[in-house]
Amino acid sequence: MSLSIQGKTAIVTGAGRGIGLAVARHFVERGAHVMFADTDEAALAEAMSDYDERDPHVRGFSGRMSEKLATANLLSATLDAFDRVDILVNAHRLVKASDPLDTDLDVLEQLLRQNMMAGLRMTQIVAKRMIKQAEADPETGAAGAIVNISTLAALHPVPTMLGYSIAYAAQEQATRGMALALAPHRIRVNGVRFGSVMSHELKDSLRDKPDLRSKIVAATPMGRIAAADELVDTVLYLASEASRFVTGQIVTVDGGRSLSDRVAVQTV
């Protein structure tokens, strides 16, 4: 089985920082052509500053991932730069607290739109392109791989993060549903559910809540918080031919936290 993605073209959303950036950088190191995409233009510019603007393997795109036009423009920019797309990693996410007793559903709708619908829409538009490519070259084998980045909150909801939890539970079901729909077209759709990972958002939370780190460590059987890079190899596996008979699966990378009976702590 090969973990190679040499010469493949990947779109990675949420690539301005954290998990998305770690994935995008690793894909470049593995020889892929990578479109770094993010809503935050400043974060994306900083991430792209590590690469020569003339590097033929790397491009950047900034746009609101929750808008239909942005997703269409992102695919168009990728095709203009690299002619095709073989891998999509939906890593963009919005983290926001929500009151479960609040009758104002604006926050819930925003979280659903950005954490579930944006990725689903991107999956749909990219899948159509992958199908077209496969029809033009039926001898290539797999038509494409899509990986959705999820969170342990989808499995163990936290009341103060209810909207966030609901959005990712919906995203995981969309992962399974799209896997079934796209399997006949030789497109695989999988997810990676993370737990105690040092994301950009968790760093902010740790600054605001000094006691949060000890709570996370105590709730994690492996006794530590993972680096963002520690999710990367799982994403690479699901994006590569090494997982060519794997689809519709959500792989949990959480240091054993989901196995514990301890009360969930509010983390992102």
From TrEMBL:
Its EC number is 1.1.1.100. InterPro entries: NAD(P)-bd_dom_sf, SDR_fam. Keywords: Oxidoreductase. Signal peptide: none annotated. The keyword Oxidoreductase applies. One of its GO terms (molecular function) is 3-oxoacyl-[acyl-carrier-protein] reductase (NADPH) activity. Pfam families: adh_short_C2. Gene3D superfamilies: NAD(P)-binding Rossmann-like Domain. Belongs to the short-chain dehydrogenases/reductases (SDR) family. This is 3-oxoacyl-[acyl-carrier-protein] reductase FabG. It comes from Paracoccus haematequi.
